[in-house]
Amino acid sequence: MIVRVLALWLLVAAGAGFLATLQVQRCHHPAFDAAADARRVAAIPPPQLLSRPAQSLVDPARQAQARCVGRYGRMRALLELAAALLAPITLLLLRWDLALARVLPHAPRIRRYALIGALLALWLWAWGLPFDVAGVLAARGLGLSRETLATFLSNQAASLGLGLVAAAIVAQAIGVLRRRWWSLWFAAALAPVAVCMAVVVPLWIAPLFNAYHPFPQTPLRSAIEQQAARAGLRRPQIFVADLSAQREAANAFVFGFWKTERIVVGDTLLARYGRDDVLFVLAHEMGHAVHGDVYRGVAWAWLFAAAGLVATELLEPRRRRSLPPESRVPALLAIAVALSLAVQPIGNAISRGVEHRADAFALRLNGDRAAGVRTFVRFADEDLAQPCPPRWAALIFATHPPIGARIAFMQGREDPCR
């Protein structure tokens, strides 16, 4: 069985690598000149920006490449979803609980459960690693990333280390599986943990992957603070992050709770976008802060997790409930993963609604429709994003409205992606 599981893992890894290779080879185009595209978009008169459909504003050659990239990217994403489900199933096939009993026949429960959690984290990481590698190689081949091997290995080590520690700690609660309605105990414990993580991430976890520093005192910062004051945000914490260490894509985001809440601007956004466009992007992020979307996001995540835990307990076959807790974990994990994949479209639909509301807030706060259209056009060109991807793909994978829909909203036109 070990040989079969290893062969299956190698097959999945080879599939991820093969699709990434095809993506680069078949979708390859000459190097994209972001500066030239910025000049092209800037030269479009505002009346045309606000009247022409998205398909006529984006770069046609770049969009031809985007359709090709999207096709292979979606195939790789579907394979990754299958691998996420295979990871706990293969643990069941290996009968890992019997092997663990032989290795630690008389170990104290705390040590045994810690090892169980660490092994689970390591196993899940191993099944996701081929897709991380394939994603980085494809992004570099397509000119979407300049991530180095050292950065990749550093990020993987930090991610794996955090996962091992967290899983070893969480696994101490495995013994609760002996109780009826153990899912409610887990759900109750998750609430404070989720809040604590939202507070801790900006301070200690995010800096493991990127460098963050306060936004320097410049005229642009003054303009950002004035816009924040109009939004009703008092003394916002504004940081710059070296997001270019992973991706070429321009980005900004809000994260953190209470006094650790931060508005983060990516260095690529500052380097390549003009003042008006940066202000519009940050007006969108200020919308998230004003609406409390970080708090809502944690609440939604907890509700989905709690419902998933209860459903997992109810779906566990009765004949397995008398087994030792460590023997039940892989099957429970497989059920939980299957449920999370099933409800992913619901979570994504909620996320798209949140992002649309932030777009509407940015339009009310900033009012620069042309800057909004200009920004989204450049996002589409630089990120190889289709204005209107296939509807099924948007339903399963998209956390933001399609670029074409966002451009149409800025223009006051009907959504072309419906």
Describe the structure.
The chain is mainly α and 418 residues long. The chain has one domain (2-210, 290-411). Helices cover 71% and strands 4% of the residues. It has a 4-stranded mixed sheet with strand order 1-2-4-3. The model has no long low-confidence stretch (mean pLDDT 90).
Helix and strand layout, with pairings?
Elements: H1 2-26, H2 34-42, H3 46-49, H4 54-57, H5 60-94, H6 96-103, H7 109-141, H8 149-170, H9 182-205, E1 212-214, H10 219-231, E2 238-241, E3 252-255, E4 262-266, H11 267-272, H12 275-291, H13 293-315, H14 325-366, H15 369-383, H16 391-397, H17 403-411
Parallel strand pairs: 2-4
Antiparallel strand pairs: 1-2, 3-4
Helix pairs in contact: 1-5, 1-7, 2-15, 5-7, 5-14, 7-8, 9-13, 10-12, 12-14, 12-15, 13-14, 15-17
